[in-house]
Amino acid sequence: MLRKLLLLTILLSFAAIEAWATHIRAGELTAVRISQSSLRYRFTLVIYRDTESGVIVGEGGLLNFGQGRILEGKPELEAASVSGSFSETNIGNQTSKVVIEWEHTFDGPGVYVVSYTEQNRNANIVNLGGASSDNIPFHIETVIRIDPGLDVNGTPQLTIPPIDRACIGAKFIHNPGAYDPDGDSLAYKLVTPLQDRGTEVVPYLPLDDPSISTISEGGGSPAQFSIDPETGDLIWNAPMFAGEYNVAFIVEEWRFSSFTGRYELLGYVTRDMQIIVEDCDNERPLLEIPNDTCIEAGTQLEALIRATDPDGNDVLVEAFGGPFQVNTSQAEFLNLPGLDDTRDFRPEPSEHLFRWQTNFSHIQSRPFEVQFKVTDQPNDPDAPKLTDFQRWNIKVVAPAPTGLTANILTGQSIELNWDNYVAANLNPKMEIYRRVESYDFTPENCNVGIPANSGYELVDDVAIGQTSFTDDNDLRPGVNYCYRIVAEFPLPSGGTSYASSEVCVLIPLDVPAITNVSVEETSDTNGEIFVKWTSPLEIDQTLFPPPYTYELVRYNGFNGTSGRTLLTTTTDTVFNDTGLNTMDQPYNYQVRFYDAGDNLIDSSATASSVRLEALGRVKAVDLSWSADVPWSLQIQSAPYHLIYRNRTDAAAEDESNFVLIDSALVTADGLKYYDDGSFNGIELLDDREYCYFITTRGGYGNPKIPSPLINNSQILCVQPNDEVAPEKPVIEVDPEKPTEEIEGPDGPLVVLENENCERLQFEPCSFANFSNTITWTSDDIDDDIARYNIYFSPTGAEADYSLVGTSQQTSFQHTGLASLKGCYKVSAVDRSNNESELSSAICFDNCPYYELPNTFTPNDDGINDTFRAFDQPNGKCPRFVESVAFKVFDRWGGKEIFSYSTTDTTEPNFFIDWNGLDSNGVQLPSGTYYYTATVTFDVLDKRKETQEFKNWVKLIR
């Protein structure tokens, strides 16, 4: 009897396993947001089922919305669905597509994992444990990030079914045809299949494991199994044994956040799929598709698609992707010559027409992807079909703005006007770009926006309804200013239009114009700079009679007025400035001029010397240079800057002679050059310094000022592959100012007195725009320090330090801070990018303050009606307060009458503003009451973190 019961139990167990075996081939769960006013989403579950299994999808299903709501079993899943039932469609290859939808509203922003689980997978999945795989549940997850700062979002949609079979020894290719309706960036990753929420399948072997396959198509080894992170091509090259295999991958979506300044992960969709491998004798069909292209929105795109098969088999050609999914004016994929859209097997070669009438709603920054798929049909009906995929990228570009004109308003302002923009309903912004001198280019063939290194700079952007703009941003006489405008479309779809036609305006030259600031001698004490300028060629000499006298003024740095020095008063227009430290810093110059009556008329624009920077590489040197000048350094009439170097002899020993080694095409490549010795075929050696200087060529675009303007940089020496880091800097501490040592998270911290605390008495209570300034010294032993890195920790903890800025000077001002609290360390970086150790830390702390009154009069006269912390005048404000806990007691201090805590409210009021009512809202009579206020401050010094205020307050009505 016992043996019969045991046998019956075993049989029932096998029956239960068979009942759960769904024979799911693949599946994914996607979502779209269906409400603009609430967080309501529609989820679509797609299951690809083996039609020969006879098992119904959903019997063992469980849907978890990740927020407490769970649907379990087919009756509950169908009852809660949009349509009330699963729908099933046969799509060939012994596969049917089962679809069901649900709607769910999330409570608020957050990251949610929505999952679907069904019992169980097939038996005998080779890489999932073989015979025991029918005990492993099928599980897929979709992650949704709901973030108000990232706008409305839905998940990627997968348009190509995973139904293709594989052949032994032949490369298997699958692409999900992912399309994101929001235009977000997609990325693909292989993952381990799951059997429950966050639980990977064990055992699982990737398809390139040697026990699974060691071969590749065409011979050779090892096998390869990967997914292209950008295109989504899943490739297994190649299966070695017949059988069923299982893989999974995720499709991530990324969106640029203007708040964080980086791309943020919005979530992902998982596709879990089977690959059935069979033995076959077949060659893969081939596809011929166009090259990637751009098309201007509003025009029609047509292209020929052609498929062939080496075996002469009939072929089926299909097309998937975004152009077929857009809401308006979807693309067509038609058979030639009949122009019908029936998808069936056709004799090869099979030709097809892709046709898409685009419109403005299709504009986006990322190209639309069209996935073409070809499948052959072998003569043997039981033989597996082979497939191939080809991807075509189509970028739909916004048309260029039209009608741009420019007119001089005054000597320092130019008015621009343009036509109403044709795609204004999509709410782009209009960007205004400016450069000195004309720059000719044709905005077509995907050359959208403003070309890199063209010298155009963004002046401003305006709302799309605005069709005029006044440019008064540092315009100078004698300069030919040229403009283009570009429409920039909002995220998440984004998109940049073609640039408008260029317009130029030449401002009359009625002031001197500096033409040369050229370094003629490099030295830390004896440097020399040649300065030259023009006279005011177009000045009204009746109003301002000549002869003119000039004052030449020098300043330190690229710009600004630091180190102002009057060099000369002269009637000449040239000057040699000597005795300078041209090795370590640039200088900028300005010319002031006077008329015959010694009246100061005006001054020129400032112009700096050219500063060369270098970075040592392995047997090479990276050069870059810059200058802050009123003329353009990237002119098409003289587009090359000249590169000079010493040690050009075969032995690299000639230090004294500088030879022109090459030129840099700055209109295409920018102000940079890479020297690896290619100019003479002699590679750079790592055991010596090479020295360089650059000759720049520029112009004002003014025919009255001859061009090119020739100016040299300083000489700079750098050693390739230098691996010796500089000495670490030392942050300066003023010995006359007190310091304090406090206990920090990882040991003692040195806190400096912060002079900003004294200034707070003049700032409003809401002020929260602080800054800290640090200075340091550095022993530049090898004379090769290129910059300093500044690291900041808001807590003083070692793990919290992060890079917040760089400086070429030995000082740094950290601005835009919400508080003063934090610690700093500095490192030195040389021209080979070697970074020193970090300096010792110095810290600043907040200066907390809180004061309460002793009387208030809640009589509704608008004066002193609440018990409120001081908030100026007299410079008294709650400063750096994190929380306040306030309690009021009767005069004997025994009975609590009222309490308030900022931790109990979403909008904390650190001023308290008690109105004289008790906790029940009853008005208290005049009298004296006792209170306590526990205030927590945001400080490094934990001894000052919590303060308790106890006192009497007189309530007078």
Folded structure, characterized:
Helices cover 3% and strands 44% of the residues. It comes from Roseivirga spongicola. Residues 398-494, 511-599 form the Fibronectin type-III domain.
A few lines on this structure:
With 957 residues, the chain is mainly beta. Helix content is 3%, strand content 44%. It is globular.
Features:
single chain; 957 residues; mainly beta; Immunoglobulin-like; 7 domains; 12-stranded mixed sheet; 5-stranded antiparallel sheet; 4 helices; 44% strand; globular; disordered N terminus; Ig-like_fold; FN3_dom; T9SS_type_B
Topology:
Layout: H1 2-20, E1 24-33, E2 40-50, E3 61-64, E4 70-72, H2 74-79, E5 87-92, E6 95-105, E7 110-118, E8 138-146, E9 157-158, E10 166-167, E11 172-174, E12 178-179, E13 185-191, E14 194-196, E15 199-200, E16 224-227, E17 234-237, E18 243-257, E19 262-278, E20 286-288, E21 293-296, E22 300-308, E23 314-321, E24 332-335, E25 350-357, E26 368-377, E27 387-397, E28 405-410, E29 413-417, E30 429-436, E31 457-463, E32 468-471, E33 480-488, E34 503-506, E35 514-521, E36 527-533, E37 549-556, E38 565-570, E39 574-580, E40 587-594, E41 600-603, E42 607-608, E43 611-617, E44 620-626, E45 640-645, E46 659-665, H3 666-669, E47 672-675, E48 690-698, E49 709-712, E50 716-718, E51 730-731, E52 739-744, E53 747-752, H4 756-759, E54 770-777, E55 785-793, E56 802-807, E57 811-817, E58 822-830, E59 842-844, E60 855-856, E61 867-868, E62 881-889, E63 896-901, E64 912-914, E65 927-937, E66 946-955
Parallel strand pairs: 10-19, 21-27, 60-66
Antiparallel strand pairs: 1-2, 1-19, 2-6, 3-4, 3-7, 5-6, 7-8, 8-19, 9-12, 11-17, 13-18, 14-15, 16-17, 18-19, 20-22, 22-25, 23-26, 24-25, 26-27, 28-29, 29-32, 30-31, 30-33, 33-34, 35-36, 36-39, 37-38, 37-40, 40-41, 40-42, 43-44, 44-47, 45-46, 45-48, 48-49, 48-50, 51-54, 52-53, 54-57, 55-56, ...
